[in-house]
């Protein structure tokens, strides 16, 4: 047995029984090497990871990943908080971190209906602005942000979450002020600002047939207008029993047939009980809900750890089977403690959706993915 296989076996066994794996990071498999030839693999980063406040997270990213996505620092409310003022410091740190480490840098996101300041859509009287005024604001924002990082950011999530589950357009303020062509205008302006940048559409639940078909129509519409569209990102906030395998395959094949890439852009796997009907609740204030919805406060038991590990392996094996279409998989965070799922859809839970635990250690799922990738070579 080779040394790497011995290390793998020791770490996998120790994690499954809840023990910390103390093997030095220099002996860990490296995901970006393991998945080379398959697809890029990366993580979404918060500002702490690139500003020096969370150096252990930065160390993991530098070692393991070859692509990074801006978790929040490039969203409109962060980078363009007031009408005539941009705040680039955090975004600059993010881009510089990626370039320093020779990573593929992904900008997220230019046009979305959430995390956008109220002023964007209204005039001084608080009334929705005209189509022309809204297009001017959109153009200024995209030209300024994309232009600043021209030649540095490899690709942009240009429009995010514009589709409803039944295949329509979300009735947001972009649609109300501009009309349905707000989507195509965003791609037009982004390409104008950086002709070499890749441009993507990003959304959740694209495995659902009606939404998948809408995404296909969206891509075809952009292509028919001669606009650049390089890929479609399915976010990948997945669980133990979703997405349905056949639906995910159908989505990947449908997008691939259009000649564009598929990326999994925000992947995590949630093992906690579903909690959508308690949306927004703080379960720390209700003992009964805390017990029901937050069962693993003291750590994942062996059985749960194994289910999570197996689910990660299943999903990655499926993605690996679509060689030549799936070009990137990005985890939505670096380690469990900082995952958004600790506070969504309800606040105060202890979630385990990523590949590194709260102590920055690789989990059983990490080692299982190494094995899964090696089996596909």
Q: If you had to describe this structure to a student in words, what would you say it looks like?
A:
With 377 residues, this protein is of the alpha/beta class. The chain has a single domain (29-375), classed as TIM Barrel (Alpha-Beta Barrel), CATH 3.20.20. The protein is 40% helix and 14% strand. It has helices spanning 3-16, 31-34, 47-51, 55-64, 76-79, 89-100, 131-148, 173-177, 182-193, 209-224, 245-256, 287-293, 302-320, 364-375, and strands at residues 40-45, 67-70, 104-111, 155-160, 198-203, 231-234, 237-239, 261-270, 326-331. The protein has an 8-stranded parallel beta barrel with strand order 1-2-3-4-5-6-8-9, surrounded by 5 helices. The chain is globular and about 60 Å long.
Our Rg estimate from Cα atoms comes to 21 Å
Task: Summarize model confidence as the mean pLDDT.
Answer: 93
Cross-sheet strand order for the largest sheet: 1-2-3-4-5-6-8-9
Terminal-residue CA separation? 19 Å
**Structural class from helices and strands?**
alpha/beta
Helix content: 25-40%
Instruction: Let me know the largest β-sheet.
Output: 8 strands, parallel, barrel
The CATH homologous superfamily = Glycosidases
What CATH architecture label applies?
A: Alpha-Beta Barrel
The percentage of residues in β strands lies in 5-15%
Question: What's the tally of helices?
Answer: 14
Strand tally is 9
CATH topology: TIM Barrel
The first-level CATH class is given as: Alpha Beta
What is the domain tally?
A: 1
Extract low-pLDDT stretches.
15-24
Shape: globular
Question: What is the string of helix and strand elements?
Answer: HHEHHEHHEHEHHEHEEHEHHEH
